[in-house]
């Protein structure tokens, strides 16, 4: 019975598997990985930074108070 137990006992292949995985390890360039991450980072709309719009300066009027008074006098006939 102990012989049958040892025959059917599961074998741990962890060490051999780790050696196999580490042997064929290929690490990509850091520049390439950064480029791929940057490309995939901004795909969703929630990941996009808000667009910065230039603030428009309030436009000043080209007319002076004297021009408005002159217009009032001409249009409404107010002295």
Automatic annotation (TrEMBL):
Region (Disordered): 37-61
Gene Ontology terms for molecular function: enzyme binding
GO CC, one annotated term: nucleolus
The organism's place on the tree of life at top rank: Eukaryota
Keywords: Nucleus
Subcellular localization: Nucleus, Nucleolus
Biased amino acid composition, Basic and acidic residues: 45-59
Signal peptide: none
Family, per entry: Belongs to the AROS family.
Protein name stated in the entry: Active regulator of SIRT1
Organism: Machaerirhynchus nigripectus
GN (gene name): Rps19bp1
């Amino acid at each position: 019975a102990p012989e049958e137990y040892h025959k059917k006992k599961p074998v741990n292949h962890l060490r051999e598997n780790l050696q196999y995985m580490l042997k064929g390890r290929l690490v990509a360039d850091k520049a390439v990985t950064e480029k791929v991450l940057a490309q995939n980072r901004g795909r969703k709309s929630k990941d996009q930074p808000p667009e910065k719009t230039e603030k428009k300066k309030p436009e000043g009027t080209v007319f002076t108070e004297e021009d408005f008074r002159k217009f009032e006098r001409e249009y409404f006939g107010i002295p």
